[in-house]
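To whoever is on call:

I kicked off a structure prediction for a single chain this morning and the downstream step that reads the tokens threw a length-mismatch warning. I double-checked the sequence; it's 260 residues and nothing unusual in it as far as I can see. Pasting both halves so you can look.
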Amino acid sequence: MTDRSQSCGGSCGCKPEAETVDESRRGFLAGAAMAGASVIAPGVTLFAYGTGEAQAAGADPKKRWGMLIDVSKCVDGCTGCVTACSEENGWKTTGHPATDPQWIRKVTLRDPKTGTTKSAPIMCQHCAEPPCADVCPTGASFKRADGIVLVDRHRCIGCRYCMMACPYKARSFVHEALEDQKPHAPRGMGTVEGCTLCVHRVDKGQAPACVEACAKSGGAIMFGDIADPNSEISKVIATYATMQIRGDLGVDPGVRYRNL
């Protein structure tokens, strides 16, 4: 299917090319990361997700957190998952689609042969081989041991190489000054951000906010450990046909889709 209303960043078959960074450039940018500062709200610290004690407590290398989205259960026009993500993590749309946060968005997919349309949420796909981490010159984009891909905003210098490298257009740059931030979901003007799988909830044994909200409506989103063959999500993946968006890229997304 092809997306005629918004881009899912890859379902059309396109593959953005990431810019390369030579070693001297890397050294310069790394130094800039140490010297630069992000503009944040008073009382909010740009906590380095997944590092230090948080990583030791929450990132089990034996696990790989992922999602399975059943598109047949995703109701057209329903934005419950988007609203839940926004409220949980403190971001909001500003009326500027080109620069608004892209933590999660609903897209309409249309089959040009039949005219059939389907609605589906798109977010960071939490790849096993994340292109965003490959091109990041400072190491700000990284993957935790449990498969969750994040941005360390202490290190992010806003170069936006990760945005160009992401096949799913799942990241956005914070242009506006921020206020009323959530302490568990720090954001910073001049940095890049995207879906964190609600890592602060996952580390407490809870499901992401979008999953919890969807369970109250269509129940389209399943969350769990896809590395555990005995988990509910793994059993469904083993039983039914599922697919990864742009699976041909070899990045092995942690988000799979059913009935797409």
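Update from on-call: the warning came from a stale cache, not from the record. Cleared it. Sanity check on the structure: The longest strand covers residues 104-110.
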